[in-house]
Automatic annotation (TrEMBL):
Similarity comment text for this entry: Belongs to the HrcA family.
Protein name according to UniProt: Heat-inducible transcription repressor HrcA
Taxonomic source organism: Sphingobium rhizovicinum
Chain ranges of the Heat-inducible transcription repressor HrcA C-terminal domain: 110-332
One Pfam family recorded for the sequence: HrcA
């Protein structure tokens, strides 16, 4: 259905529509004409309001979930409200301080992103999500620690001081000397390179037979690089925090919707595909209900804003997932401010 332009609604229709939407977003309940008539800003009788609400329903902006139960905005109506009528409120000083304090500047970037997501989740009462930028560690040192005759602990130390361990299966007969040789070779040759660059360099040396390793040590070097590279490819690039916020009192009345939403959050690849759509833009994006097929069944909304790296390019997306009756005027600026704060951190 095409969305009715806000300019085509007369003043009376706009006022009634705005009050219905704001009341619904605040309570999650359908709004009746008598409730609207008692609001001081509107001097219309309940009968006149009912007629206006009927007209708005015929335009596809309002719907009546049950007979004589009042009206609530449709997804089309919510889109019209967000795009054309909503007055966004800047985050309060307290909210700004909470977001900035929740982002730890020292330590791995993943920790800062996770903290930012948890803070945003708590402030918005939604599930917080962040797409972590893919980045390859720059290598400094390698080590192999024997565990038993068939396994060793492969240790990678990054230039940023990060340490990662992986259990590596060993071919039969590998000696501690071979483990030490492979570690020394890898540290000397691959220090300062990324995993991809190290793998390419090892492949070139093996092809040209310029290596000074025996077969077992050479195999260890290849295995060590392969296990880290494989893990880096499979590493989650989506952090989700605060799923419990989705099980509020309103969700308890519709457990099936809540169950579907939680299941959708488990399908991280699908959410990543959705968020990648926000990578291309420079502004906050809002997906309401069935505007995105992923959340069409649960009736959920996504607000997502891109954040930038040191070179000014968009490297990730931060946002929230919640019910369609979000307080959009408050949450949208909050998501936008979190993205701006992350961008400053990444510089």
């Amino acid at each position: 259905m095409s969305i009715t332009p806000i300019s085509e609604l007369n003043d009376r229709a706009r006022d009634v529509f705005r009050l219905v939407v704001e009341s619904y977003l605040g309570t999650g309940l359908p709004v009746g004409s008598r409730t609207i008539s008692k609001m001081a800003s509107l001097s219309l009788s309940p009968a006149s309001i009912r007629n206006v609400m009927q007209d708005l329903e015929e335009l596809g902006l309002l719907a009546a979930p049950h007979t004589s139960a009042g009206r609530m905005p449709t997804e089309t109506g919510l889109r019209l409200f967000v795009d054309g009528m909503m007055q966004a409120a800047e985050p309060s000083p307290e909210e700004r301080r909470a977001i900035e304090a929740g982002i730890v500047e020292n330590g791995p970037i993943e920790e800062a992103l996770s903290a930012a997501t948890a803070t945003l989740s708590g402030l918005s009462a939604c599930a917080g999500i962040v797409m972590v930028p893919k980045r390859e560690p720059v290598l400094r040192q390698f080590g192999f620690v024997p565990l038993n005759a068939r396994q060793a602990l492969a240790v990678l130390v990054g230039q940023d001081g990060s340490v990662e361990n992986r259990v590596l299966d060993l071919p039969e007969g590998v000696s501690p000397i071979a483990l030490n040789e492979a570690a020394n070779f890898m540290s000397a040759r691959f220090g300062g390179l990324t995993l991809r660059q190290a793998g390419e360099a090892l492949a070139r040396e093996m092809e040209l037979e310029r290596h000074a390793l025996d077969n077992s040590a050479r195999d260890l070097a290849a295995r060590g690089l392969a296990i880290w590279s494989h893990d880096a490819d499979d590493r989650p690039v989506l952090i989700v925090r605060g799923q419990s916020h989705l099980l509020d009192d309103s969700a308890a009345a519709d457990l099936e919707r809540a169950r579907q939403l939680l299941e959708q959050l488990e399908g991280k690849q699908e959410i990543l595909d959705l968020l990648r759509g926000a990578l291309a833009g420079s502004a906050t994006k809002i997906f309401i209900g069935s505007e995105n097929k992923l959340f069409s069944l649960s009736g959920s909304s996504v607000i997502a804003a891109p954040y930038r790296g040191a070179d000014g390019r968009v490297v990730g997306v931060v946002g929230v997932i919640g019910p369609t009756r979000l307080n959009y005027a408050r949450v949208i600026p909050m998501v936008d401010f979190t993205a701006q704060t992350l961008s400053r951190l990444m510089r």
